[in-house]
Specification:
The protein is of the alpha/beta class. Helix content is 39%, strand content 21%. The strands form seven sheets. It has a seven-stranded mixed beta sheet with strand order 14-17-18-13-12-20-21, with helices on both faces. The longest helix is centred in the first third of the chain and has 21 residues.
Length: 495
C-alpha cells in the first residue's frame, strides 16, 4: 500500500481502504450482539469517517469466555514458543508500520510522525517481552537439608486491558505484551474514540501465530462494555490507564472479585529548570513535554518550574518555539494536532476560560482554533500562563491539553517544594548542569519516574507508573511482568 497516496486520497475525497468494524473474539471478526454501532471521528476535520461495533455485557462475556477457555493451553505453552510469537508480532508490526501509523493518526488526531513513533515503540514492546518470556524463573528457599523449597511463577489468568485514547497502540502493547509473555490471556477494550488500531493489533497477533481466543478485543462505551469487563468474575487482573475517577471505579469493581489492578492515572508533572541549565536544551524539552500530542499525555510536563534567574531567558526561548509550531491535520505532519474529541475540546476550553475569569492572562494562546487549511477540526492554541500561584487550579488540576503553567522558584530547594505541591506524582523532569543537585532533586521529588536533561528519556526497558493520585503499580520493564504472575511456593520434606 502506498501510504502517501492513501493519505492524499483521503484528504481530497474522504475515501479509505477497508477498516475493522466488528469485535475480534476467538480469533474471528464478530458482529455485536445487539447489532448496535458507533462512529469514530477524524479530529482534524471534526467529522466521522468510520463506524464500529458498540458492544455490551453479552459481547464482553463472549470475549472473556473465549479467553478463559484458551487460558489453560496458553499458560502451559512453552515460554520460548510464547516469546517467538511475540517476536513475530513485532516483525509484522514493523512491516505494516506505515498502515498502523496512518490509522493511529487518523483515529486519534495526533501528527503522523508521532503516530509513527508510537507504532515503533509498540513493536519494540513486543520484541522486548518476546525476549523476556523464557526468562521467568522461580526461587529456591534455604529451609534445611531435609527439605526442598522452591517457587513456581504462574500466569494469573484472564487479564482485562482498558486502553486510553491518547496513546492507543503503544499503551495496548505495553500491557498486552507482558501479559502474553507471562502466559495470560487478554480481553482488551479500547477507548470509544480510538478503537481501530487495537482491533488491527488483535488480528495481527493471530497472524503472528497467537492461538485463537488468547487475545480478544471488544469495542464500545465505557458504560456498556468497559464496566462489564472490569466487573466480570472471570477477570483476574485489570490494567487500566485513564482518569482518577474512572480508576477509582475500576478498583471498586475489581474488589468484588478480588482481582488485582494496575492503575496509571492522571498527572500534573513538573519540569524543573535551574539557572545553570543549558537553556536551549531546556526550552526544547519544555516544548516536547507539553505540546506532544497536543498536551494529551498523562506524563506531560504541564508545569514549568524555573529558577528566577533563568526565567526571562528561558521564557523568551520557549515563546519563540511556540510561535514556530505548525497547527494542522495530523496526516499533514503538523507539529501541533487537534484534541481528540469535541467534548474534550470543550473541557479544555472551559478550564482555560475559568482561569482567565480568575484574572490569569495567558502570555501565549488561550483560545480554540482550527486547521488553517480547512477551517475545521478540534484545535486549541498552545497556551502558557506565567507566574501562576501554587494553589490555582491551573497548577493543581490536570487540564490534559496544550496548556502550560509556569511557576517561579527561588532556588533548587524551593523548586523541589513546588514540584511536590500537587496531589499527583507521575513523572518529573530536571534540567541542570549540576550533577549533585539533579540527583538530590530526583531523590526528593515524589514521582514514579524522573527524567534528567531529557524529558521522556528512556524506553520500554524503564519501569513507568505513578504514586499518590497518579496511581500504583508499574508498567514497562521487567517490573511489568510481576503484574501478570502469581507465585506458588512448594515445600517438601525429603529426608
Amino acid at each position: 500500500m502506498n501510504i502517501d497516496a492513501t493519505i492524499g486520497t483521503y484528504l481530497t475525497t474522504g475515501a479509505l481502504p477497508e477498516l475493522p468494524a466488528d469485535h475480534f473474539i476467538a480469533g474471528a471478526w464478530t458482529a455485536p450482539a445487539a447489532n448496535q454501532r458507533m462512529e469514530t471521528f477524524d479530529a482534524g476535520l471534526g467529522k466521522p469517517f468510520h463506524d464500529f461495533a458498540a458492544g455490551n455485557a453479552e459481547d464482553v462475556d463472549r470475549a472473556v469466555t473465549s479467553a478463559h477457555e484458551a487460558q489453560a493451553a496458553w499458560g502451559r505453552t512453552k515460554a520460548s514458543a510464547r516469546g517467538a510469537i511475540l517476536s513475530r508480532a513485532a516483525a509484522l508490526l514493523r512491516e505494516e508500520a506505515a498502515w498502523f501509523a496512518f490509522v493511529e493518526s487518523l483515529d486519534s488526531g495526533k501528527p503522523l510522525q508521532e503516530a509513527e513513533g508510537d507504532v515503533a515503540g509498540a513493536a519494540r514492546a513486543f520484541e522486548y517481552y518476546g525476549g523476556a518470556a523464557d526468562k521467568i524463573e522461580g526461587d529456591t528457599f534455604p529451609i534445611g537439608d531435609a527439605y526442598l523449597g522452591y517457587s513456581e511463577p504462574e500466569p494469573v489468568g484472564v487479564t482485562a486491558h482498558i486502553i486510553p485514547w491518547n496513546f492507543p497502540i503503544s499503551t495496548a502493547a505495553r500491557g498486552i505484551a507482558p501479559a502474553l509473555a507471562a502466559g495470560c490471556t487478554v480481553v482488551a477494550k479500547p477507548a470509544e474514540t480510538t478503537p481501530l488500531t487495537m482491533l488491527m493489533l488483535g488480528e495481527l497477533l493471530v497472524r503472528a501465530g497467537l492461538p485463537a481466543g488468547v487475545c480478544n478485543v471488544v469495542t464500545g462505551t465505557g458504560a456498556d462494555a468497559g464496566a462489564a469487563l472490569v466487573s466480570h468474575p472471570r477477570v483476574r487482573h485489570i490494567t487500566f490507564t485513564g482518569s482518577v475517577p474512572t480508576g477509582q471505579g475500576v478498583m471498586q469493581a475489581a474488589s468484588r472479585h478480588v482481582a488485582s489492578v494496575v492503575l496509571e492515572l492522571g498527572g500534573k508533572s513538573p519540569l524543573v529548570v535551574l539557572a545553570d541549565a543549558a537553556l536551549d536544551q531546556a526550552a526544547d524539552g519544555v516544548i516536547g513535554a507539553i505540546y506532544e500530542n497536543a498536551g494529551q499525555v498523562c506524563s506531560a510536563g504541564s508545569r514549568l518550574i524555573v529558577e528566577r534567574g533563568a526565567h526571562d531567558a528561558l521564557l523568551e526561548r520557549v515563546l519563540a518555539r511556540v510561535a514556530a509550531l505548525r497547527m494542522g491535520h495530523g496526516l499533514r505532519r503538523s507539529t501541533l494536532g487537534p484534541l481528540n474529541s469535541e467534548p474534550h475540546l470543550q473541557r479544555v476550553t472551559a478550564k482555560v476560560d475559568a482561569a482567565k475569569a480568575r484574572g490569569l492572562a495567558p502570555i501565549a494562546g488561550g483560545s480554540t482554533a482550527a486547521d488553517p487549511e480547512t477551517g475545521s477540526g478540534w484545535f486549541f492554541e498552545p497556551t502558557i500562563f506565567d507566574d501562576v500561584p501554587s494553589d490555582d487550579p491551573v497548577v493543581q488540576d490536570e487540564i490534559f491539553g496544550p496548556v502550560l503553567a509556569v511557576q517561579i522558584a527561588e532556588d533548587a530547594e524551593d523548586a523541589t517544594r513546588l514540584a511536590n505541591c500537587t496531589d499527583y506524582a507521575l513523572v518529573a523532569g530536571i534540567y541542570t548542569n549540576n550533577f549533585s543537585a539533579a540527583h538530590r532533586m530526583a531523590r526528593d521529588i515524589d514521582a514514579g519516574q524522573v527524567f534528567i536533561n531529557e524529558y521522556f528519556a528512556g524506553g520500554i526497558e524503564v519501569p513507568f507508573g505513578g504514586n499518590r493520585m497518579s496511581g500504583f503499580g508499574r508498567e514497562k520493564g521487567l517490573a511489568a511482568m510481576h503484574n501478570y504472575l502469581r507465585v506458588k511456593s512448594i515445600a517438601a520434606k525429603i529426608g
